Amino acid sequence: MHAEWAAWANGTAVRELDMHDTFLAADYAHPADSIPPLLAVAQQCGRSGADLLKGIVASYEVHVALVKSICLHKHKVDHIAHLGPAQAAGLGAMLGLEVEEIYQAIQQAVHVCITSRQSRKGEISSWKAYAPAHSGKLAVEAVDRAMRGETSPSPIYEGEDSVIARFLDGPEAEYLVMLPEDDEPRRAILETYTKEHSAEYQAQALIDLAFDLRGKIPDRESIESIRIFTSHHTHHVIGTGSGDPQKFDPSASRETLDHSVMYIFAVALEDGAWHHVRSYAPERASRPETVRLWRKIETVEDPEWTSRYHDPDPARKAFGARVEIRMGRGETIIGELCVAHAHARGRRPFARPGYIDKYRGLVDGIVEPSEADRFLDACVRLPDLMPGELDRLTIEVPVDRLGPPGPHPEGIFSCSTHA
User: Fold this and answer.
1) Coil, strand, or helix at residue 391?
2) Band of residue 1 on the pLDDT scale cut at 50, 70, 90
3) What string of DSSP letters covers 140-192?
4) Cα dist. 262→129, 182, 265, 278 in Å?
5) Which runs of consecutive H residues, i.e. helices, occur in 313-411?
6) Orientation of helix 35-44 relative to helix 3-16, angle to 10°
7) Pair 175, 252 in one domain
8) In a domain, 365, yes or no
9) 3-state secondary structure at position 225
């Protein structure tokens, strides 16, 4: 058994759809990226469902706290630098390790998870899906290393040539990372929000807004321009403020289209629906009428939306935009949406039925109905699963539904050994 490779494979599969949870504050996060390595190690080490839950909750606490306090993207550091230590902390909590072991594991995970944000710029490659899984693999190895008595670069955040001094705000900078006391409840997981649509979270409200506005536009060919007034983050990461011409390229990768709010808004406006496969298909992206509409869209940074993006008050925090659609006859159609419909403050907040419907939509036509039901039942009973029962959280797909194998060009590990 090799937990680190299971973490890698399943972490990549989870991230490929970009459809799990999100947390946005000083930086970005997808806290559920911690679950694949935790599950893999729990299965290998014979842990219970309650142990796994403890690890998941611990990883969320660390991840959310770091994202609230330390901005990575300002320094062009990719956000897996917060994910790695969260994964290591969760593994340590799940395995019941000593504080010193967890400390050393976290330091090692931070040290090896510092990477640049180029993975989310320009032509975005498949590495965007691999990066969180790679972090999980590194976290598993870091914890194993610490359990064997090895130490790590220390202090990893405050050292003379370490993270704060060389990658963040400099040697004199200070950050306050708030974690709960021993007797305080662990609530960070409740602060995160899910995705109803398979797209970058900052596009969720804009997909819903496109659905709302499309009925007010009798002829989309008459649209002269669309301006999306939104936050600094949305404008610079998935909007025209990124300066990435690939965000307007019909032949761009799925990963790039997922980070183009111009493409996403155009397709949502045309289709009135969003699908995790069909909405990104090459034939969908290359429709001439879509390309024409897509290239009429630009984003504009609006200080008010940036302020609301960072507002510490959950009742005011917003990840939406105001959209102005200028028509050929001089008419302007305006719409605004603060949060996605699935958000806790949205029109249709996600609750258990929403999560179950989302799950069933993802497995439809891929997994046998009986297997889909079995897996869902195991998830519901997670706190009661005993050691040796966590294999029930592995879903089985019939071989004939996996599709033909893709190309397997030779690499180093496929080379034969020569005398």
Assistant:
1) helix
2) low
3) HHHHHHHHTT---SSSTTTSTTSHHHHHSS-TT---------TTS---HHHH-
4) 21, 46, 5, 17
5) 352-363, 369-380
6) 150
7) no
8) yes
9) strand
